[in-house]
Amino acid sequence: MIDMHVHLRDFEESHKETIAHGLSVASKIGYSALFEMPNTVPPLTSRREVERRIAFADQVLFEEPMPVFHGLYCGLTADANQIAEMVQCVRELFPRAVGLKLFAGPSTGALGVTEADQQEAVYRELVSQEYAGVLMVHCEDISLFRDDPGLTHGQRRPLESELASVRRQLALVKRTGFSGTLHICHVSSAEVLGIIEEARSELPCRVSAGVTPHHLLLNEEMVNGEGGYLYTVNPPLRSEEVRRGLFNAVLAGRADVLESDHAPHELSDKRAGASGLPGIPGMLCAVAYLVKHGMDGSLLTRMVFEHPLDILQMDPEMLLRQAREADQRLTSVYRITDMFDMITTGGWHSLCEKYRELARSYPWDPYQKLAEEYLL
User: Which of 34, 39, 41, 307 is the most buried (most CB within 10 A)?
Assistant: First the structure.
């Protein structure tokens, strides 16, 4: 399994999560690779910080060898020189620096490039640099956010803002001739998938879409209930109708990647309004729920292994080599197959126990109710 979208915190946020702990949890599930986002503290927006992060992760894996490849994305700002520096980082440090990340909507950290003209300038600079790698994009249009008193998190950041931002990114790649891979992160609605599907044939680049366990399994009623602050995430959880539509679209093979968007916080941070959920254990819930509802092993393997490899232009042999060096005999493909067999044959008690164990390693489990009622 490969997770294209995690936040491993560490450095000045090591009280929330560390690279060592995140890789350890991932290895117990059977991951072959994690790729972390650049909105760390400090952010991964300079060559110095990118190299420091890679060296730190190398030291972690040297001290405790694990069969999990660590990679990251370089964060983009609106500055042309900074963009050029990040493109060069990817070229010279690939696959450890595997691609770029654009926050077209604001989220945790201060990396938002939220104005339309700034976003167009980013794409034009990437084209001038002849960048052909992956560009991960967080899509929300800040101009459609609302700040009326009494609104919930989801009402303040409505689905319309996500739809508008996705449309804008697709229009910008067409207008500028961007020829890399545009990956739309954490899609929260089947309507987003429809917009992408309708536009694909007219675009100069490949476009892929990732979905998360929380948008597939949870809905906005959880945010509105007791302890709802725990379920705050960007983009927000949607209505049950929208959640069900996205879930069915994924079962139909309309999304490319299942990505955790693992983003743990301490409970005090959540009470203060921090957005993000611990997501790596939730991948077990998502996989089990999808398979129980009819997803076959080949589609599951494509979403958590084959498509991420292809989108990131990764060599699978490199991942298998690291697994062998850590004395692991099973490849990710076999692990996915084993997991699928456990779920479909009913002999998956050990998988449930593994979920319980890993969920307890974080301050709270956003999938606990679902797991207790349905999975466990």
Answer: 34
Angle, alpha carbons 41-76-178 (nearest 5°):
155
Q: Which tokens sit at 238?
A: 């949607």
Handedness of CA 57, 339, 293, 217 (dihedral sign): negative
pLDDT at 331 over 50: no
Q: Are 262 and 9 in contact (CB under 8 A)?
A: no
Average pLDDT value over all residues in the chain: 91
pLDDT given for residue 110 in this prediction: 80
Per domain, the residue ranges of the chain are: 2-375
Peptide bond into 235 cis (omega under 30): yes
Distance CA 330, CA 221 (A): 40
- Give the distance from CA 281 to its chain's centroid: 14
Provide the token pair at 106. 């604001």
If we measure between CA atoms, which residue out of 62, 108, 60, 106 comes closest to residue 262? 108
pTM: 0.94
User: Tokens 């077990």 appear where?
Assistant: 284
58 tagged catalytic = no
Query: Residue 328 corresponds to which tokens in the numbers above?
Result: 């692991």
Q: 2-375 maps to which CATH number?
A: 3.20.20.140
290-308: average pLDDT: 93
Helices 332-345, 349-359: inter-axial angle, 10-degree rounding: 110
Look at phi and psi of residue 292 and say left if phi exceeds 0, alpha if psi is from -120 to 50, else beta.
Answer: alpha
Rounded distance between C-alpha atoms, residue 16 and residue 134, angstroms: 28
- Does the structure show a pLDDT above 60 at 333? no
Report the C-alpha gap between 206 and 134 in whole angstroms: 9
Tell me, what DSSP letter sits at residue 237? Answer: P
